[in-house]
Specification:
With 247 residues, the chain is an alpha/beta fold. It is built from 8 helices and 10 strands.
Length: 247
């Protein structure tokens, strides 16, 4: 595990973008596992700028996203397909036919999950998986639970996650209560993992995940067992880790 300390969100975003850009440069046909949420937005902005400048080529890249709200179409402005299109895919030379996001409208959810696992396998696995981290330590939508979920599955979102997402919707009633998410097994099978964290609200979860006991009650703690994890976090997110003299 390597921890890169950044002074603020902007520096964190640029460093994370440099790591992902290096992956694409070294392996132009990389399979990227991508994440949504506010944390990676700055990273995607840098990647877009470098693509426009002719410094980074997405033409051979494929991608699989971590998750999608159940019940939202890809045209819904709160869906994660829409997020990826507006924050990255619409602005770089990636072939959208090779970008995959779980189907939030699938009538047979179990079949959709199995299909998504097969998509990941058919691509030869994920070269670099991008992750954020929730305030409760969730990765993707793998919430605190009694066991680590292996494959793509349907998850009931916790009340804390629903409340955290409510700011993006007109009312609490509009916030989806379920999501389709890659499982911890999918995530851990990636060759490399890049986790980004920003802000004081993530400090406790980041400390517990990197230095606490490995437990499904803190889903990100499983990353301690991965062979190639890179953490890029700003000073606010690293506060507790620094206070304990761990970096």
């Amino acid at each position: 595990m390597i921890i890169y300390a950044a002074k603020d969100y902007e520096e964190m975003s640029k460093k994370a973008a440099q790591i992902m850009a290096a992956q694409i440069t070294l392996k132009p046909n990389s399979v990227l596992g991508l994440a949504t949420g506010s944390t990676p937005v700055g990273m995607y902005r840098h990647l877009t700028e470098w693509n426009h400048a002719g410094e980074l080529d997405f033409s051979q890249v494929s991608s699989v996203n971590l998750d999608e709200y159940r019940g939202l179409s890809g045209e819904n402005d709160q869906s994660y397909r829409y997020f990826m299109n507006t924050n990255l895919f619409d602005h770089v030379n990636i072939d959208k036919a090779r970008t995959f996001v779980p189907d939030g409208l699938a009538e047979d959810a179990d079949a959709a999950c199995a299909d998504y696992n097969e998509i990941i396998c058919s691509m030869g696995g994920i070269d670099m998986q991008l992750l954020g981290i929730g305030g409760n330590g969730h990765i993707g939508f793998n919430e605190p639970a009694d066991a680590f979920a292996q494959g793509t599955h349907i998850v009931d979102l916790t009340e804390s996650t629903i409340q955290a997402n409510a700011r993006f919707f007109e009312s609490m009633d509009d916030v989806p209560k379920q999501a389709i998410t890659m499982g911890v097994g999918n995530i851990m099978s990636a060759d490399k993992i890049l986790l980004v964290a920003s802000g004081e609200a993530k400090a406790e979860a980041l400390y517990n995940s990197l230095y606490g006991p490995v437990t499904p009650q803190v889903p990100a703690s499983i990353l301690q067992f991965h062979k190639n994890v890179m953490i890029v976090a700003d000073e606010a997110a690293l506060r507790i880790i620094r206070e304990k003299g761990l970096i």
